[in-house]
Amino acid sequence: MPGDILGNEILNKDREFQFIRGPLFSNIVLADEINRTPPKTQSALLEAMQEKQVTVAGKKYDLNNPYLVLATQNPIEQEGTYPLPEAQLDRFMFAIKLDYPTVDEEIAITKSTTNDELVPLNTIFTSDEILETQHLVRRIPVTDNVVEYAVNLVHKTRPESYLASDFTKNYVDWGAGPRASQSLILATKTHALVSGKYAPDIEDVKKVAIPILRHRVLKNYKAESEGISMEHIIENIL
C-alpha cells in the first residue's frame, strides 16, 4: 500500500498523532521489481520523484537531499505485474538494459558470491560532494547547436511532428516529451564532464540518447509484429 513506502501516522502513548517515516525517506531508494507494485502505490512515487516531497494526511514532508530512485523490472515474467504508466516512466532519467553477463563476468560473480569473504564498504562521496557535483554539471556551458540537436532529436520521435521521418510515422505510436530534452542535456553535460571535456558536443548527445529515450517512446503494434526493437527505432532517428 502507499503507506508502506510513504509512512503512516500513528497514535503514540501521549494520545497524539505521530508520523512514522517510510523507506522513501532515504538518499538512495531501490524499488526492486517495481512492476509488481500496485498502481496506487506506484503513483505515490510520482510526487517523491518529481517534487522531492511526499504528502501524507494533508501535510507535506521534504525528502532527503541528494535523492535518487533506482528501480528494476523483470522483462520476462509478467504474471502478477502492473505496467508502469508513461507518466511514471518519464520520471526516470535512464532506462538501462542489463543483459546476461559474459562467461568471465559470470565466473567473477560466482566466485565473489559463493565465498565467506566480507567486502569492506568505503565512503567515496559525502552528500555535500554529490550536491556540489550536481551543481557543477548544471554550470557547464552548452552551445545552442547542441541544445537544438537534442531538442530536434526528441521532436523526431513524435509521429505528429513535421520533423518525423516516414519510419517514425510507421512504427511509433507516441513520442518523448519535454522531460526527454531536459534529461538529454543534463546527461550530455555529465558525459562530457566524465570524458574530460570543457563543454559537450553532438557526439555526447548521441552517446546518451538510447538510455534516455528507450522508455519514453512507445512503438506501435506494427513494430511489435515485425520485431523492430526500440533501440533500432532510436538508432534510425539518430
Structure characterization notes:
The two termini are 41 Å apart. The protein has 238 residues and is α+β, with helices and mostly antiparallel strands. The strands form four sheets. Strands 1-2 form a two-stranded antiparallel sheet. It has two domains: 92 residues, 3-Layer(aba) Sandwich (Rossmann fold), CATH 3.40.50; 111 residues, Magnesium chelatase subunit I, C-Terminal domain (Helicase, Ruva Protein, domain 3, Orthogonal Bundle), CATH 1.10.8.80. Strand 4 and strand 5 form a beta hairpin. Helices cover 45% and strands 13% of the residues. This is magnesium chelatase. Its EC number is 6.6.1.1. It comes from Elysia marginata. Pathway: Porphyrin-containing compound metabolism.
Helical amount: 40-55%
Mean pLDDT: 87
Apparent shape: globular
Biggest β-sheet: strands ordered side by side in the sheet: 1-2
Question: How would you spell out the order of helices and strands?
Answer: HEEEHEEEHHHHHEHHEHH
Please give the largest β-sheet: 2 strands, antiparallel
Number of helices: 11
Number of strands: 8
Parts with pLDDT < 50 across at least 5 consecutive residues: none
Category from helices, strands and their pairing: alpha+beta
- The CATH topology label of the largest domain is Helicase, Ruva Protein, domain 3
Radius of gyration: 21 Å
The domain tally reads 2
The CATH class name of the largest domain reads: Mainly Alpha
Taking the alpha carbons of the first and last residues, their distance comes to 41 Å
CATH architecture of the largest domain: Orthogonal Bundle
CATH H-tier superfamily of the largest domain: Magnesium chelatase subunit I, C-Terminal domain
Q: Strand-residue fraction?
A: 5-15%
